[in-house]
Design goal:
By secondary structure, the chain is an alpha/beta fold. The chain has twelve helices and eight strands. Bound molecules: phosphoenolpyruvate. Phosphoenolpyruvate (PEP) binds next to strand 8.
Length: 259
């Protein structure tokens, strides 16, 4: 059984008090439901670095809840002012790390090779990478979305061993849908996720392909989450804007419980 995941990427939002309040509200909403999350259904909170130890502590031992980081450095340690290593993230209590978000690719020029280095370090320190891929609007309009995504996966991930790759989560995030309010239709998401799984199968075989969780990201909201998650190969979502609102985020999370 693949894990079904709702991950909330808070990006560069929330002061310390706001972050504490959001975690408190999310935990309460889950508690108030009176139910335990079904086996294999998880929520990951992904705050800015300064709040990572606090959020990790807050979700420690809460069934189905985990913490993650938004990025990690491409080197283990050293003179890299402002960077945060995979080792530090793991020692802060996090279990996941986003690698290759389109905002990192765009604003920080993160190349396929750089993302390969980051993924390797995340795995070395037992973090689960949430590897983001996805085409921009020009590429989709040119019908190049499959080629673009295949190259992102091939160049950054496909030199991993089977064992390493089986520990990766992939988030398909069409760049044109991130923060724009324009969601991929369930059919578009379903087609791309099927293509990603097939691409993984061609490289690593059916057993690995079947067990890797594939998340959809891009303006996922309570109103469209159910339809997106109902697609056979969509195993949950990486949520940006809606993850800053406890009600919206937990509603998206609960829609995964019914899958
Ligand atoms: C994201 O940043 O990963 C994302 C999916 O953002 P949003 O949900 O706001 O489109």
């Amino acid at each position: 059984m693949r894990k079904q995941i709702t991950a909330g990427n808070w990006k560069m939002h929330l002061t310390k008090d706001e972050a504490i309040d959001l975690v408190f509200q999310i935990k309460n909403a889950v508690k108030d439901s009176g139910k335990r999350p079904p086996e294999g259904v998880e929520m990951i909170l992904i705050p800015p670095f300064p709040w990572l130890p606090m959020v990790s502590q807050a979700v420690h031992n809460v069934p189905g809840m985990h913490a993650g980081a938004q990025n990690c450095a491409h080197e283990e340690q050293g003179a890299l002012t402002g960077e945060v290593s995979a080792d530090m993230i793991a020692s802060a209590g996090a279990q996941y790390v986003i690698i290759g978000h389109s905002e990192r690719r765009q604003h920080f020029q993160e190349s396929h090779d750089r993302l390969k280095e980051k993924t390797a370090l995340a795995l070395k320190y037992n973090l689960t990478p949430i590897f983001c891929c996805g085409e921009n609007l020009k590429e989709r309009n040119a019908g190049e979305e499959n080629r673009v995504v295949e190259k992102q996966l091939t160049d950054s991930l496909f030199s991993l061993s089977k064992e390493e790759f089986s520990r990766v989560i992939i988030a398909y995030e069409p760049v044109w849908a991130i923060g724009t309010g324009k969601t991929a239709t369930p059919e578009q998401a379903g087609q791309m996720h099927a293509f990603i799984r097939e691409t993984i199968e061609n490289h690593y075989g059916n057993n690995i392909a079947r067990q890797v969780s594939l998340l959809y990201g891009g303006s996922c909201k309570p109103g469209n989450a159910k339809a997106l998650f109902s697609q056979q190969h969509v195993d949950g979502g990486l949520i940006g804007g809606a993850s800053l609102n406890a009600k919206d985020f937990t509603e998206i999370y609960f829609s995964l419980w019914e899958k």
